[in-house]
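Bit of a strange request maybe. I'm writing a small parser for C-alpha cell strings and I need a real example to test against, not something I typed by hand. Could someone generate the C-alpha cells for this chain?
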Amino acid sequence: MIDRVWRILLWLYPPGHRREYGEEMLGALAYRHERNGGSARAALGSFLDLAAGAAGMWADVIGRTMMGAGQGWLLDAKFVVRSLWKSRGYVATTTAILACAVAANATVLSYARGTLLAEPGWEDPASVMVVWGSNVENGQRRDVVSGPNYVDLRDGVRALDPVAALHHDGTYLLVDGRPEFLEVLEVTVDFLDVLGIEPVLGRDFDERDRMSGGAATVIVTHAFWRDYLEGDPDALGRSLPFEGGPRTIIGVLPEGFEFLAPAPVIVPLREDLLAADERSRIHYNVMGRLVAGATLRDAAVELNDVARSITVEYPDFEGWSFLVEPLQAVSVEAVRPAIVFLTLTVSLVLLVALVNLATLFRIRAMARDGELGVRHALGSGKLRLARVLAIETVGLAVGAATLGLLVTPFLLERVTRMVPAWVPIPDSASSVPVLRATLSPEVAALIFVVAAAGALLLAAPTFAGAGRASLSGSGTRVHGGLRGIRALVGIEVAAATVLCIGAGLTARSAESLLSTDLGVEPEGVLTLYVGDVWGLDA
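Reply from user aminoacidic:
Good idea to test on real output. This should exercise your parser:
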C-alpha cells in the first residue's frame, strides 16, 4: 500500500527526472522506511519528503527555463531606453504615426460615445416616443401636428400616458438693461412627466399652468440658475423681465439635464389655446411615454384609429395618419451611419499604424539579430529576450497613445467648431443638436488598451523569432523574417487600399453635392434684420 502511494507521488516530479531516477528513489524510500521501523510516522514523513522534493524540482526547472525572466526589469528597461535613444528617427516615426491614429480614433469614438452610446438624461428612454403627423403620399413622412389634433390624440390614445406637445422658439430677456436672445421651449404641463424629470428646486407645471388665466410662470435650467441667477437659493418666486411680460420662476431643473432642443428656459403652453387653434396650422411636436405593458404596435393602432376619426370629421386630412417612433432612435438616425462609417475608417487607420509599427519593429529586430544572439550566448533565456523586445514595443505604443490622447482635447475643440450645431431629422422639417463629444475615461482607456495590446500582438511573432536567433542559421532567420515582413506589409497595403477607395468615394460624393444646382446664386447674398426688439431699435 505504501509503495503504491510512493509511485503516485512520483508523478508530481518532472517527467524526465521521474524516468531517470524514479526506481532509484523508490529503492531509497523503501530502505529508509525499513530502517525507521516501518511505522506510520515514517510513512507520513516519506510522503511529505516526496511532495516537498517535487515542489523544489519544479521550482528549479521553472527557474532555469525563465533564465532570469522574473528579475532585472529595471535593467532591461534601461537597456531599451539606451537602445531607442540611439534610434531616434525610428522612435519619432513610429510615435508620430501611432499618435495621429490614436488621436483620430479618440476623437471619433468620443462622438460615438457622446452621441450614439450616451444615455439620455431622462428616465427609461426606451419608453419615450415621438408622434408625427404623417402623409407618405405627399412626401411628409414626419411632420409636426396642429393643436386640435394633439388634443384628439392625447385623449384618444391609452398606450401613451402622459402625452405632451412642445415647440422650440426664441424670446428676449432683459439683462443689465439690454435685451438678450434666449432659446425657449414651450411645452404643455405634462412635458417633464413624460421624461420622468422633477425639478431640484421648486415645482413642475401643474393644473394652475394648464389653461389660460393662470400666472405667467417659467422653469429654468440648472445652468441658467447658476450663471444668470448666480445660484441664488431664493430665486423661486423671482420675476424675470421677458419679452411680452414678466414671468415668475417656479422651478429649477436638475444639473446636467438637457433636452434635444437645448433651451435655458421652459414656459407652459395653454391647452385651451391649442384646442382653439386652427386644425390646419401644424406647429407642434408631440411626445409621450408608453404605459407599462403597452408596445409600440399598440400605440400605432390606437393612433391610426384617432387619425381615421379625424379624417371622417375633417375630409381635408384624407391621407394623413400618425407615426410613432422611439425618440432616442429618431434623434440620432441622421448621424448614425456617418459616425459608424467614421468609426470603421479610423479603426482601419489605427490598424495601419499598428501594422506599420510591427513592420518597422521586425526590420529593427532583424538588424539587431547579432546583438540578440550575443545576449543569448551570455545567458539570457528566450523569455528574457522576448521581455526586452516586449518592453520596447509596448513602451513605444504606450508613449504614442499617451501623446495622441493629450492631443485629442485640442482636436475635439477644432472638430466641434466644424460640425453643424443642428442636424435635420430625416424626412422632417425638425432638427436636433444631437452631435456631442467628450473624451470620457472609458474612451481613453479603450484606445490606450487597444494601442498597447495591438502592438504587442502584432509584434509577438518577432519575439519568438528573436528567441530562436542563436539556434538557427542566418539564412533561415533572414528568410523567416522577410516572410513575416511581407505578411505585415500585405495587411497594411490592403487596409490602406480600402481607406483610399473610401476616401475617393467620399470626395466624389462631396463634389457631386457641391456641384448641385440650387436654383439660386448664393454668392454675395447677405441678410440683415431691421426692426424693433422689445421696443428698442436694432
